[in-house]
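sorry for the late reply, my laptop died twice this morning and i had to redo everyting from scratch. anyway the thing you sent over, i finally got around to it. pasting the sequence first so we're on the same page, its 273 residues, then the predicted structure underneath. double check i copied it right bc i was rushing
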Amino acid sequence: MPKSVSETQLGGIPSSGTHTSGMLANGVRARIVIPARLASTRLAEKLLLAETGQPLIAHTYQAACKSRLAQGVTLAVDDLRLAQVAQQIRADWVMTDPLAASGTDRIAEVARSCPDIDIFVNVQGDEPEISGESIDKLIELLAQEPRAMIATLATELQSRKDIEDPSCVKVVCSHDSMALYFSRSMIPYPRDISDLSGAYLQHLGIYAYRREFLLALDKLPASPLERIEKLEQLRFLQAGYPIVVGIVSHAARGIDTRDDYDAFLARHRKLKS
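ok and here's the structure:
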């Protein structure tokens, strides 16, 4: 069973990052939650890999701490080894249900115990190079768009290979930046044009949620579109929850495979040299 959020688990431990608490002008309060699941398919226990001198999850936590607008950063873990890392780096943390269906469900556990927070940002644990600026853009986006319950980010795709790659999720938006659809397919389909520049957006796996949406999450069943495409955001969209999309110039590089981690190690060594 998940532990409840306590003063020593959430908000009671000083941050080891460079994070400075902030608040938006309209009084909206935001918190970053990093759902940290130990099991991983393509790279075993990747969040504990520590060839830089500290675990991967620690890098992600420290990157998230660079947000200016979030009130704090919490690791939502599912294993005692991840909890031990959180304690070692003096991070706020909470033990969540090991059987939780998704990272969003782990964030909902935190949201139920934080009535003073309006917006929760989901930063994936395997994105050690996420920028504080992107997180702040996401927070501002949702805080300033009253129609939306969810905000997310996207970036322009230039490579035809990436556009056609089903592992690269695409999003199409309305003129006022609301998501129309997410897909692994090539959307829009270029029926009779060859110049695809600026026409395709890659969806980035970072979200901001309003607390009231997260509290209703357990009442939201999986949708037909979600089952077909294996994309959780389609459950939200098909249920009628508006999603606003912000555009950023580049994507943080997530760690899915050993090659991804090796490339991260090389970039990390270069920065340290």
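Residues 30-272 form a domain with the Spore Coat Polysaccharide Biosynthesis Protein SpsA; Chain A fold (CATH 3.90.550.10).
thats about all i looked at so far, will dig more tmrw
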